[in-house]
């Protein structure tokens, strides 16, 4: 509530949601237990849970786990933390960068993050946790603005299966240990308000962290074998570009065609029509990687064999030129395979 925190306590395997007042009390107890172990205030503990929905937390195990976790605390424990929060994920997701923002002495501002998520991934409410830390000295307003912008470019631009979930968290904490000049959105220069250059540097680095983690989530989508990037250009309005990109990346027919390397660009055109936006089909061009497959809304039949070979690659980029305006966006997804069904039909 006071926008300050010193620690995060998270559990995996149980979402602690749809548990009524008991769930709230258990979350509060997690914060209390962590605060006691760390010798800090309960209000300075952030709590996150992920896993099965509508199951009561095993608080005796949680208590013991918190005690063990405190003994394992280390500045080199990032990989252990990234692995500990996984559920149906197949690999740990972590990344860190050093910025060009100078700090105390030879120090430079650093940002690092870990994330988990593989299913029930879709904008706004996904089964994902993301914890980001930075040693930057930065104002609360600047940190909030940079984070909101980064999340909208990354975690709100991905889909594994089009489903949302009850647990969706992005935490970011800054401790100021880099000793840099405090980053603000604006600062005064000769009585004028000018953009803080370091804020731009910080925002660019945070964008990179979040987009990289978001792409890891969809690359590790349940049963996925291919990463799909959908770039829409030439839209009349920003929301049109986003709706179209999301519709194509989320289309089951597009996703299964890519899974089976089926050369069917018509499925992309069909998804465009389902996006409910202002669009002129006879102006649309569609590329798969660098291969033109639709020109002015007409499919190019002679490229099917070439397209089949393109679709055998592990990363597929679909570029859609609407040729109607100046707005663009990028959205990421993954293919849909039989393994996704096998994973979820036995997820109990």
From TrEMBL:
<keyword id="KW-0808">Transferase</keyword>
<dbReference type="GO" id="GO:0005737">
    <property type="term" value="C:cytoplasm"/>
</dbReference>
<dbReference type="GO" id="GO:0004358">
    <property type="term" value="F:L-glutamate N-acetyltransferase activity, acting on acetyl-L-ornithine as donor"/>
</dbReference>
<protein>
    <submittedName>
        <fullName>Bifunctional glutamate N-acetyltransferase/amino-acid acetyltransferase ArgJ</fullName>
        <ecNumber>2.3.1.1</ecNumber>
        <ecNumber>2.3.1.35</ecNumber>
    </submittedName>
</protein>
<comment type="similarity">
    <text>Belongs to the ArgJ family.</text>
</comment>
<keyword id="KW-0012">Acyltransferase</keyword>
<dbReference type="Pfam" id="PF01960">
    <property type="entry name" value="ArgJ"/>
</dbReference>
<dbReference type="InterPro" id="IPR002813">
    <property type="entry name" value="Arg_biosynth_ArgJ"/>
</dbReference>
<dbReference type="InterPro" id="IPR042195">
    <property type="entry name" value="ArgJ_beta_C"/>
</dbReference>
<dbReference type="GO" id="GO:0006592">
    <property type="term" value="P:ornithine biosynthetic process"/>
</dbReference>
<dbReference type="GO" id="GO:0004042">
    <property type="term" value="F:L-glutamate N-acetyltransferase activity"/>
</dbReference>
<dbReference type="GO" id="GO:0006526">
    <property type="term" value="P:L-arginine biosynthetic process"/>
</dbReference>
<comment type="subunit">
    <text>Heterotetramer of two alpha and two beta chains.</text>
</comment>
<dbReference type="InterPro" id="IPR016117">
    <property type="entry name" value="ArgJ-like_dom_sf"/>
</dbReference>
<keyword id="KW-0963">Cytoplasm</keyword>
<keyword id="KW-0068">Autocatalytic cleavage</keyword>
